[in-house]
């Protein structure tokens, strides 16, 4: 007979691996749904997998021959000069503004201002706060030029604490522009803050490259991986550097605590996450949605809500199967566990003494 441990249930199927599930007011136990790997590896991987499926759906699940695809990168402007430190051994190293040629051993200086006293910390967190508005204006501008455009957006934290965007873009081939034109049109978009009226724009550094989804699948997958690898990064970077790096982050946190997140905000009393995330708000990953007149990014209309529904339906079906055939289910569970144990043992042969 199947035991409660072997029978699929809310606790060992939909919650499997979650290290901090919580109980809702309705009495239902649900996943913590964290997207941060350091807080819950299981939920973070589920989050990444859901978005990965949505990203691929917008490239491979439709008539790709009718579209052109681009990877567009947009960055924040400068708020002061920072140390230039390579991220990998052997990388080409240019002389830093401090006069030195840094190596990877100087990681505690990566993204740290040359002159912390004059660095515009308030401007940086205000830009993070308004970056969502700036992206909205950019998106509208591109749709004015190319009506068929759809997007998949990943927001990454730079070492200095500013956001920048990696965007997969799809445009109908009949109206598709050159990559340089698309990139410049996006980079020169601007907005005015709804909080304080400040002018908001992208930085000078940006990039736009075209790629093919058909006939060049390896390159397309590489582009997708490049964007999706940022999904599991902490929203507020957990620095591995030393005192200089931590000091920079502390100043950013102080500036975020003081910035207004809305016209009527009183920062000291405001509970908004804007004050705890270096000014940033909104989702780390997003995709254009299907409407009456638009396909949205996913050709099949896939969303995270639909994915959760499909998982719930699968768990319910498996529970019904176990209830109707408990003996067969117990055998299946034992065989699966034995197979997994065998694979784990084989994978560890190289490290056995």
What's the count of strands?
9
Count of the separate structural domains:
3
Strand order of the largest sheet: 8-3-5-4-9
Low-confidence stretches: 1-13, 235-240, 347-353
Nearest-integer average pLDDT: 82
Helix share of residues? 25-40%
Major sheet description:
5 strands, antiparallel
Straight-line distance between termini? 39 Å
H/E order of the elements?
A: HEEHEHEEHEEEHHEHH
Instruction: Output the radius of gyration.
Output: 24 Å
Number of helices: 8
Overall outline: globular
Structural category is alpha+beta
Strand proportion, as a percent range, falls in 5-15%
Descriptive report:
The chain is of the alpha+beta class. The protein has three domains: 1-61 and 302-316, no CATH class; 67-79 and 120-297, no CATH class; 81-114, no CATH class. It has helices spanning 10-14, 41-60, 121-145, 179-187, 217-228, 243-258, 304-324, 326-347, and strands spanning 22-23, 29-30, 67-74, 150-157, 163-172, 190-192, 199-201, 206-211, 285-287.
Characteristic terms for this protein:
globular, 9 strands, single chain, alpha+beta, 3 domains, 353 residues
Quick overview:
The chain has 353 residues and is α+β, with helices and mostly antiparallel strands.
Secondary-structure topology with pairs:
Blueprint: H1 10-14, E1 22-23, E2 29-30, H2 41-60, E3 67-74, H3 121-145, E4 150-157, E5 163-172, H4 179-187, E6 190-192, E7 199-201, E8 206-211, H5 217-228, H6 243-258, E9 285-287, H7 304-324, H8 326-347
């Amino acid at each position: 007979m199947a035991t409660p441990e072997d029978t699929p249930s809310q606790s060992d199927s939909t919650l499997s691996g979650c290290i901090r599930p919580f109980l809702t007011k309705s009495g239902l136990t649900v996943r913590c749904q964290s997207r941060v790997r350091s807080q819950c590896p299981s939920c973070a991987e589920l989050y990444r997998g859901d978005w990965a499926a949505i990203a691929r759906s917008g490239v491979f699940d439709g008539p790709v021959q009718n579209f052109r695809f681009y990877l567009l990168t947009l960055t924040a402007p400068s708020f002061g000069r920072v140390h230039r430190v390579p991220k990998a051994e052997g990388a080409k190293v240019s002389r830093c503004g401090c006069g030195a040629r840094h190596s990877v051993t100087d990681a505690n200086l990566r993204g740290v201002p040359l002159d912390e006293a004059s660095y515009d910390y308030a401007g940086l967190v205000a830009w993070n706060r308004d970056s969502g508005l700036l992206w909205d204006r950019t998106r509208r501008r591109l749709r004015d030029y190319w009506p068929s455009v759809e997007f998949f957006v990943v927001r990454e934290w730079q070492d200095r604490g500013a956001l920048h965007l990696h965007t997969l873009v799809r445009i109908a081939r009949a109206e598709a522009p050159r990559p340089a034109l698309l990139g410049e049109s996006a980079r020169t978009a601007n907005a005015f803050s709804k909080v304080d009226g400040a002018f908001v724009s992208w930085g000078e550094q940006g990039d736009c490259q075209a790629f093919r989804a058909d006939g060049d699948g390896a390159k397309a997958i590489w582009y997708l991986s490049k964007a999706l690898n940022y999904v599991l990064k902490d929203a507020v970077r957990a620095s591995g550097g030393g005192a200089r790096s931590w000091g920079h982050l502390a100043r950013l946190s102080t500036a975020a605590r003081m910035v207004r997140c809305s016209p009527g905000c009183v920062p000291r009393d405001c509970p908004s996450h804007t004050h705890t995330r270096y000014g940033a708000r909104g989702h780390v990953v997003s995709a254009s949605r299907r409407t009456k007149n638009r396909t949205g990014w996913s050709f099949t209309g896939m969303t995270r809500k639909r994915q959760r529904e499909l998982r719930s339906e699968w768990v319910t079906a498996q529970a019904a199967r176990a209830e109707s055939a408990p003996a067969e289910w117990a055998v299946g569970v034992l065989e699966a566990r034995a197979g997994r144990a065998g694979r784990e043992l084989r994978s560890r042969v190289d490290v056995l003494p």
